[in-house]
TrEMBL record:
<dbReference type="InterPro" id="IPR000863">
    <property type="entry name" value="Sulfotransferase_dom"/>
</dbReference>
<comment type="similarity">
    <text>Belongs to the sulfotransferase 1 family.</text>
</comment>
<dbReference type="GO" id="GO:0008146">
    <property type="term" value="F:sulfotransferase activity"/>
</dbReference>
<dbReference type="Pfam" id="PF00685">
    <property type="entry name" value="Sulfotransfer_1"/>
</dbReference>
<protein>
    <recommendedName>
        <fullName>Sulfotransferase</fullName>
        <ecNumber>2.8.2.-</ecNumber>
    </recommendedName>
</protein>
<feature type="domain" description="Sulfotransferase">
    <location>
        <begin position="62"/>
        <end position="315"/>
    </location>
</feature>
<keyword id="KW-0808">Transferase</keyword>
<dbReference type="InterPro" id="IPR027417">
    <property type="entry name" value="P-loop_NTPase"/>
</dbReference>
Length: 321
């Protein structure tokens, strides 16, 4: 961890450093994706460069709020909800920009879109910023500023299936060319974007126990089961609580409906738009079905991953079956 702080100056230094990191070419993606282990997580070279730069120069302010997640755990949904909560007085149901834009456009990722993050800080003294970075790799200024963080997490098996399809589609591989068993195996061994998954959850979880006023944990499955309670909790936590009048007027329900998978996934922009030259918006809206993993996992995979998650997270009471 300290290497970045003390030795890395130029872009060239960073490139040299990345070359020394452990590397893994993802066989199930036919070698189209190579991950590097930087600090304690795996990621792509292009992202690690931006991570190092953010670690060296990003300046968080105490009022900035971070939306944190392991990939495929509900990030797009959380971004939509936060945007809708924060802007609810500006737009009505028919004028909300979520109807014509991918939710990711409103809340940029620290390690992917640093310029947009800086722009959003310039535009608002309460910037909302997303990140998939593990807790221990966050820029120190975020921790030192006591910024609030919302951490959304999801059961590991659905995350694996969602990650499998997302990566496969990004690299334009049909299912028959991208064996799920191999994807599972890599994930199981902790090798996945921003993985290991369990370390990611554990890092934020530990900190949320130390500083509950700073980190709100939200479970994807709970958001689905009890959206009203959880959206209220979310709004309060980020400093935009609903008034009694708003509650009576059904504002929470309208936000839930606006941000629902059924609504967002059927919008023209999310069916046919592009997030960037490689990623179609539709890839962020696949099925959103709980327990889709049952269509992919063998009994042996179930046993292996359940045992592993129990071993890694069971002791802290976070059993994510
Ligand atoms: P990201 O990390 O790449 O941003 P993320 O949004 O965290 O992805 O996860 C995508 C998953 O959330 C997809 O799950 P699936 O593959 O099992 O279908 C996606 O369908 C689901 N999702 C996207 N939007 C919503 C939503 N509004 N409500 C519920 N689930 C959603």
């Amino acid at each position: 961890m300290e290497t970045t702080k003390t030795q890395l100056g130029s872009a060239r230094d960073i490139e040299e450093m990345i070359k020394t990191c452990p590397q893994h070419s993802c066989s199930w993606l036919k070698g189209k994706s190579t991950l590097f282990k930087y600090q304690d997580f795996w990621s792509h070279e292009v992202i690690i460069k931006k991570v190092v730069s953010a670690q060296q120069s990003f300046k968080a302010r105490p009022t900035d709020v971070f939306l944190c997640s392991y990939p495929k755990s509900g990030t797009t949904w959380l971004k939509a909800l936060v945007f809708a909560i924060v802007t609810r007085e500006k737009f009505d149901e028919s004028s909300n920009p979520l109807l014509t834009n991918l939710p990711h456009n409103f809340i940029p990722f620290l390690e992917i879109q640093p310029e947009q993050v800086v722009a959003s800080q310039e535009n608002s003294s309460f910037a909302h910023v997303a990140t998939h970075l593990p807790y221990n790799s966050l820029p120190k200024s975020i921790l030192a500023s006591n910024c609030k963080m919302v951490y959304v997490y999801r059961n590991v098996k659905d995350v694996i299936v969602s990650y499998y399809h997302f990566m496969r589609e990004v690299f334009k591989l049909p299912m028959e060319d991208a064996p799920f068993e191999e994807a599972f195996d890599e994930f199981y061994h902790g090798i996945s974007g921003y993985g290991p998954y369990w370390d990611h959850i554990l890092g934020y979880w530990k900190e949320s126990k130390e500083r509950p006023e700073i980190i709100l944990f939200l479970k994807y499955e709970d958001l689905k089961k009890e959206p009203t309670i959880n959206v209220k909790k979310l709004a309060e936590f980020i400093g935009y609580p609903f008034t009694i009048e708003e509650e009576k007027a059904g504002v929470i329900e309208s936000i839930i409906k606006l941000c629902s998978f059924e609504n967002l996934s059927n919008l023209e922009v999310n069916k046919n738009g592009y997030a960037n030259e490689m990623i179609e918006n539709r890839l962020f809206f696949r099925k959103a079905k709980d327990e889709d993993w049952k269509n992919y996992f063998t009994d042996e995979m179930i046993e292996k991953i359940d045992n592993l998650i129990y071993e890694k997270l069971g002791a802290i009471g976070l059993v994510l079956k």
